[in-house]
Specification:
The protein contains no helices and 20 strands. Strands 9, 10, 11, 12 and 13 form a five-stranded antiparallel beta sheet that branches. Strands 3-4-5-6 form a four-stranded antiparallel beta sheet, with no helix packed on it. A four-stranded antiparallel beta sheet has the order 14-15-16-17, with no helix packed on it. Strand 14 and strand 15 form a beta hairpin. The N and C termini lie far apart (45 Å). It is mainly β. Helix content is 0%, strand content 48%. It has one domain: Quinoprotein alcohol dehydrogenase-like superfamily (Methanol Dehydrogenase, Chain A, 8 Propeller). The chain is globular.
Length: 251
């Protein structure tokens, strides 16, 4: 949603999961991009949504520009004229269960993504998981959304998405699943993210090539930050109840 800052009135809205019955609230961090679409300068807002779709909108008008999967999904039949996915009724929660991807944890969740104006890529730590969604006829215990799910297989990866087209430019698959780390991209052509094995990893922002890692002993549930002090650039990230700081020394 876009609200008028002075009056609080609604300016425009876009529904990424129409008639959501899978707990895919769209509270994932939106990213503001001043970019170009078909050679025209545009003020944009981009989101890798919990439902597995990457959206780019004109942030002035709310007009949809890009709608594309950033992980493989199976819950929609297509895209409507507004750029919204069309839910497949067969993938609604069923009494005997419906196999759906992503699961209720989502293809992305609240940890922040990152955008690099140098590469034109949007970086997101993503998950592809399958759940069987059930609906229960239980008056004493109503479900929190359209039903409830029972989890199954999942995988996770760092995705680099071209904001102009939604195409995946590179994908780095992690060993393991369930990652919930934020992402940081820098002007030095680096991307930092956490992996499922409690590592802080640095990758080449253009190619996705892993360059360095450090095991922090606990999961990274936040986004790394960087700053410069007295001529030295530092990298700071939290893992568990501990903050870790690294000095980024050039060659």
């Amino acid at each position: 949603m876009a609200l008028n800052l002075d009056t609080g009135k609604l300016v425009w809205h876009f529904q990424s999961s129409p008639h959501d019955t899978h707990d895919w609230d769209a509270v994932q961090t939106p990213v503001l991009i001043d970019g170009e679409i078909n050679g025209q300068k545009r003020k944009l807002v981009a989101q890798a949504s919990r439902n597995g779709y990457f959206f780019v909108l004109d942030r002035i008008t709310g007009k949809n520009i890009v709608t594309k999967e950033f992980v493989k999904t199976n819950w929609a039949k297509g895209i409507d004229a507004k750029g919204q996915p069309i839910p497949n009724p067969a993938k609604e929660p069923q009494i005997d269960g419906a196999l759906v991807t992503p699961n209720q944890a989502g293809a992305a969740n609240w940890p922040p993504p990152s955008f690099s104006p140098d590469t034109g890529l949007f970086y997101i730590n993503a998950s592809r998981g399958f759940s069987v969604y059930y609906i229960f006829d239980d008056d004493e215990k109503p479900e929190g959304w359209g039903g409830n799910d029972r989890g199954g297989w999942s995988e996770s990866m760092l995705q680099a998405i071209d904001y102009e087209t939604g195409a995946i430019r590179w994908s780095h698959k992690w060993e393991g699943a369930g990652i919930r780390s934020g992402v940081l991209s820098t002007a030095g052509n680096l991307v930092f993210a956490g992996d499922p094995s409690n590592n802080l990893v640095a990758l080449n922002a253009t190619t996705g090539e892993p360059l360095w890692h450090a095991n922090l002993g606990n999961a990274l549930s936040n986004g790394p930050i960087t700053y410069e002090l007295d001529g030295t650039q530092y990298l700071v990230v939290g893992a568990g109840d501990t903050l870790f700081g690294f000095a980024m020394l050039g060659k």
